[in-house]
Amino acid sequence: MELLKSNENGFTGLEAAIVLIAFVVVAAVFSYVVLGAGFYTTQTAQATVHTSVAQASSSLEVVGNVMGIAVASSPTRLTYINTSVALTAGGTPMDLQQMVISYSDTAGGRSPNISTNADLNSCDLVFSDQTTSENWRWCVSQKINDLNTVPNDLLEPNEIWVLSIGMPSSSKVNQKFTVNLQPAVGAFLPITRTIPGAINSVQSVY
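User: That's the sequence. What structure does it adopt?
Assistant: Structure tokens below.
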């Protein structure tokens, strides 16, 4: 009676196949992880580029002088200012209804948000020398080069809008102040000026 001989050739081939399959699976998983990370990085970079382009193409600039207006017969402070703004070169239309305007000065006067008029296309505010919430507002008092037959809140290329912005009681002579214009999309525009030593009914503020 012959003894059964042990032959492991078949098992060696099976083990090699199992190891090969394991290597293929691990390589596939690793490749998926690497590709996923690459796609995520590419999408993040693309989103950053798009955001940067939107920010750069949606900016405001001041056109001309900033005019200070005082309505009192013997004024001791500015009642409001008029500043003309336009889009920077190549800028995209901007919805000014969503813009936030804030004020600060070296005397401690500060407002995180000056309220907008209910309808920017109808600047029906009547600024007075009294310190009331109605005077602490801003509106669009004039639109230059506006060819739209239907009024809208979009500042478009080649248009110039005159903003009337109410000033607080601290806006007195020799006072340095900053008005920040923060659109919904785009960089904010700081307007820093110093009130002259004598206040007239109408004057340029530099």
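The CA atoms of residues 71 and 128 lie 6 Å apart.
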